[in-house]
Protein: Drug resistance transporter, EmrB/QacA subfamily
Amino acid sequence: MKQDQTEDIQQMRKFPIVAVLLPGAFLAILNQTLLAPAIPVLMDELHITENTAQWVMTIFMLVNGIMIPITAFLIETFTTRRLFLFAMTVFAVGTVICAISPNFGLLMVGRIIQAAGAGIMMPLMMTVFLLIFPIEKRGTAMGTVGLVIGFAPAIGPTLSGWLLEQYSWRVLFYIVLPLVLIDIVIAYFVMKNVTMRTFPKVDVLSIILSTFGFGGLLYGFSSAGNYGWSSVAVISSILIGVISLTIFIRRQFTLKQPILEFRVFKNKTFRITTVIGMIAFLGLIAAETILPIYMQNMAGYTPLDTGLVLMPGALLMGLMSPINGRIFDRFGARWLVIIGLTLLTVTSFLYTQLTASTSLTYLAVVFAVRMLGVSMVMMPATTAGLNQLPNRLIPHGTAMNNTMRQVAASIGTGILVTVMTSAALATGTEATVGDEIHGVNVSFYVATFLSLAGLVLAFFIKGTTPAEERAAMVDDQ
Structure:
């Protein structure tokens, strides 16, 4: 993108664009966590296991991850306005299907369609924000994105928990639908075109390979809890995933216009911050999936109790995200990320000590500190990595970052739920609550180890501020 075009974009009126993109992203993220307290309800009503029920969460994230690479192509092919309206319309169609679904199969179809629209939303919003804001203000702008990412999980589980005690789980989707339609109508009138269209060619084989790759890994790891690690279906699914992903990655380096630009990983800071973002997002989603199962199926709490436990942490994450954005603009990402991952590691360990009588206060306080840590990691790490890329690579950087984060959360959550069910001391009718809780504690031991690995990586992030990075870019030019 030329310098004068960049300046023109940064000078356009930002408020209408932000006012449309943020609610769209809010609704997309809301639907990612809205069903967390409903997992035990779905298990009971639809007669399915934990490993099957968690698919309503993980399939949403997986399809997000599959769609995000395609979004880099879509952003460079269609106008910003048209792509946003298309994404929100697809999301609305999926929401309708979920609302009227009479069984688990149709619910999954609706979730897949919802996720296809949501998968376009997040990278589109991040790309637009990074283009309309100059580098020295990106931390504050991305902090606003963090505000949305924080408040959506805050409202989602709490609203869901309250509604589930009074109505069917289908009402969750009927509430979201009118909000989606209102955003579509407003966007039709106020959304502006920001991104540049270069009309790249789409490689169908790459899309097929990425779908089989990510899908194979998720299905294999998620199904191990139901069928066992030695099952032919599990082993073959994981092998198909590994082989497909290997071919997919090798193919991207041979294409003139790759679906995912893996060359962005040549930048060390981007590489490190992407891995850290994957670990942080996994820590966020895994806790919001496992805790409701533990609280409602093992500790005897209600869906509303679950929502109330998750709410303070998610609110704290939302409130702190803009503040962390300003701190990032002034001091950079390094120490924010180090402190955040320390909190994430400590709280993961504290969740390895759960019992049948663990209090709501303990669960809520630990979760709140955990979300404070996540808020210090997610957007600062992401923005620090993307700031290292030239404008022409930002759509590819955001696509890669979001893809890796969603895939890590979906596959990682599948693995942790499988660890939870596999590590239970006993299963079936003879299993005690203590046997099942042992599995929950073991899954959080795994989460503790992952957070600790991220903390070690954080020390390799540069200690520069965005202003210093911009000055360095000018000197290089």
